[in-house]
Design brief:
4 domains, transmembrane helix, ten-stranded mixed beta sheet, binds adenosine-5'-triphosphate, 16 helices, 16% strand, four-stranded antiparallel beta sheet, Alpha-Beta Plaits, Rossmann fold, membrane
Length: 546
């Protein structure tokens, strides 16, 4: 057909349309006028009131029709879109709105995600997740959805509604793992587990896996991947959780990983549980098994001296326009820390506890710049267990199972539950030990700490001690250590050690003085047989930085 003919036909149709609608309009006006007159007569009211009554009735009718239509639509759409059960979710990807004959093709919609997110409130009811913006992957433990949210939504909308999303998928909040993107607010990665997390144990990592990990691994995530923190430089860690949940085991795993892959560092251990950290005594610069607040104070004093010294060095470097000094990392680990902030009622004990609060705050806050990291564990994450001014300083937080939200807040921070995708530690299965919520760099991750076999840890400790000894500079101190080691003893009399190190002095007092000057370490005191040196003291003197 020619173009002019088409235009002519369209014009004629339009004119006919106009006449038709005009006639219809006149008809409607005539009927309306008649109806109004009838209404006026029937009610016996003036014209203006008749008009108002008629208008009101029409508006009401219109509203009722709209309400009925909306309800019916929702009902129908619910029937059409059954929510898949967990594990079957991936199979439910279907194309909706595929181009029908004669209509424009609409982009396909991902039915599962659209329904679940829409009903959970993470996206609006009129919004959709487009099928070609979703990738679905089946992995051993479940299904991973990677998708783009509608432009008006962010990953936070998903994070805030994870409980409802889990419920729509027929699983629990702990079955879900949300990952957000640093590049786009709309990009989301959601893992839906088939089974509750950690239903099957993961084997502890090998040395190589620990070495290859970028940072310090703390446990496995729900997929069996190693998870941890990028570094402990300028960071301290607070670990809370009820008794027998696996805190000490987790920290044993952490120390083992540090010994394998963190390089040289000094370890100070305060074992409030008395036997929780004992296996690491051979590699500790100082190890104390005690729950006496005075012992914490003495360790704090020792470390604060190191902090102050390091600050002075940093100031010196700045003043002289030299590069910042690099310090050997120091880890101060306190198991059952809450006990050290409890006094026995006496005035003296109250004073010690008060000083401990001040000194701990100072250490944790100031030590970050100087490379001294504090790790505190507590089975009593009650509000008053670890003083607020101390616990506010921790950058990394971890919480194993606790029964209440309040205690979780103590361990994870007061504003923890306002963060994106928080995980409530009370939801953890208390019978699966070692599970913890790790909150680091603003992200919550559900992990399970490593439970290394004892033999593995002993070997790591021995290896670390041997390597450290080998790396010592060739000094009389190292010679003395080797002598004690070769003889397999942990104490040697001055009378035996002095001649072995070339001191020929016959007067014992003079020989003792010369030996002390040579080693730079005072003797350990008098034993039943006489004065002498302990291997532990010699090692401490040889390895401590200051
Ligand atoms: N990741 C894990 N896998 C398997 N078992 C674990 C794990 N973590 C801890 N356990 C077991 O759980 C029990 C309690 O562990 P642990 O002593 O570390 O807990 P805790 O929280 O330090 O206890 P408490 O506060 O009473 O000192 C131990 O028998 C330990 O072997």
């Amino acid at each position: 057909m020619e173009r002019s003919e088409v235009t002519k036909t369209t014009k004629t149709e339009t004119t006919e349309d106009l006449y038709g609608q005009l006639a219809g309009g006149i008809g409607v006006l005539a009927v309306a006028a008649g109806a109004l007159a009838a209404l006026k007569n029937a009610l016996g009211i003036p014209w203006w009131a008749t008009g108002l009554v008629a208008a009101g009735a029409l508006v009401l009718l219109g509203y009722l029709a709209w309400w009925a239509r909306t309800r019916l639509r929702r009902l129908l759409s619910r029937k059409e879109q059954p929510v898949p059960a967990a594990g079957k979710a991936a199979a439910a990807t279907e194309d909706v709105g595929e181009g029908e004959e004669g209509t424009e093709a609409l982009p396909a919609v991902h039915k599962t995600l659209t329904t679940v997110l829409g009903r959970a409130g993470a996206i609006g009811r009129e919004e959709v997740i487009l099928d070609d913006e979703v990738t679905t992957q089946q992995i051993d433990v479940g299904t991973v959805y990677e998708f783009l949210l509608p432009a008006s939504r962010t990953a936070e909308d998903v994070g805030k509604n994870l409980g409802s999303i889990a419920s729509m998928l027929g699983v629990t909040r702990l079955h879900l793992k949300l990952e957000t993107s640093r590049k786009s607010e709309r990009k989301v990665r959601l893992l839906v587990l088939k089974e509750p997390p950690f239903s099957e144990p993961f084997p502890p990592p090998t040395r190589q896996e620990i070495i290859d990990f970028a940072g310090v691994p703390l446990g496995h995530d729900v997929t069996g991947k190693l998870v941890g923190v990028p570094t402990f430089d300028k960071a301290s860690l607070l670990i809370g959780g009820m008794t027998q949940m696996g805190k000490t085991t987790l920290v044993n795993g952490l120390i083992t990983c540090l010994l394998i892959a963190y390089g040289e560092f000094d370890l100070y251990l305060l074992d409030g549980k008395l036997c929780g950290l004992t296996q690491f005594q051979p590699v500790a610069v100082r190890y104390e098994a005690s729950d006496d607040p005075a012992v914490l104070e003495s360790m704090l004093d020792q470390l604060i001296v190191r902090v102050d010294k390091r600050y002075t060095e940093m100031q010196e470097a700045k003043r002289n326009r030299q590069p910042a000094p690099v310090f050997k990392p120091v880890f101060f680990i306190i198991d059952e820390a809450a006990d050290f902030y409890v006094d026995d009622g006496s005035k003296e004990s109250q004073e010690v506890v008060r000083r401990n609060e001040d000194k701990s705050r100072k250490l944790v806050s100031k030590s970050l710049e100087s490379g001294i990291c504090t790790i505190m564990l507590t089975q009593r994450p009650a509000n008053d267990a670890i003083p607020v001014k101390v616990r506010d300083q921790f950058l990394y937080r971890m919480c194993l199972y606790v029964a209440a939200k309040g205690t979780a807040k103590v361990a994870l921070g007061d504003s923890y539950f306002e963060t994106v995708a928080p995980i409530h530690p009370a939801l953890l299965d208390a019978s699966i030990k070692g599970q913890a919520v790790l909150f680091a760099t603003g992200v919550s991750t559900l992990i399970r700490g490593f439970n290394f076999p004892d033999k593995f840890m002993w070997d790591v400790v021995d290896e670390f001690a041997a390597n450290r000894e080998q790396a010592l500079p060739e000094t009389p101190l190292k010679q003395a250590i080797s002598l004690l080691r070769d003889k397999g003893v942990d104490f040697m009399l001055t009378a035996d050690l002095a001649p072995a190190l070339g001191i020929t002095e016959s007067d014992p007092a003079e020989a003792g003085k010369k030996l002390k000057d040579l080693l730079g370490v005072p003797s350990a005191g008098r034993s039943a047989k006489g004065r002498g040196y302990r291997l532990a003291d010699l090692m401490k003197a040889a390895t401590a930085e200051e």
